[in-house]
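Q: I have 205 residues here and want to know how they pack in 3D. Can you give me a structure?
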Amino acid sequence: MPPIWKYPAEQVPYKPPGDVGSIFFFRCNCGEAFVVGETESGDRRIIELEDTGRSKRPVVWYDSGPFDIGLMTADAIREYGDGTAWRDAGREVWHRRAEGSNAGNGSVMRCAPHAIAFAEDLDTLIQVSKESSAITHYDPRCTYGCAVLNCTIAGYLRDVEDPLEMALDQVQRDAPDELVESLRFVPDMIDEPQLKTSGYVVHTL
């Protein structure tokens, strides 16, 4: 398998074989649980977990003790494991968390595969990106953050002249102002020392 990181090997903390970060485990072990299907009206969206026959995968993965699972992801999976519907688990966790701890970056870490699958259909890409985020990260800064990131990736795949500008134009009517206005500074009006390395989704984006 080729290296995942761009950094020299000595700068990457060692983990035993099979003990990789939560983002890779979540995509590999839980990703197939969330299947995109068509509704009766023809819209494409994430269909019910129970309909896929894979509804226990996230809980089984969580119970296996994965390395470096994010707090909101962990809380949402526990909520789902305790009987809350999967479409509601992320929202319940979000409602209980105070501002400052309710908009983490976990969902933007895992959302990029949607951009590859739906690069030519931005409406579906935005819908699926938001729904995928809301499973664990319900805050609009997270759901629309995933939409912006994925539309930007799709823009690069489609050779759009300014992919980020195109992505922001797609969501600016409904997305949180803080998210949109912060990202408009990137990259021309912001220097690397100004970038913050917190777990806050806006800082990450």
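Q: Anything worth noting?
A: The domain at 9-204 is CATH 1.10.4080.10 (ADP-ribosylglycohydrolase fold). The CA atoms of residues 36 and 46 lie 4 Å apart.
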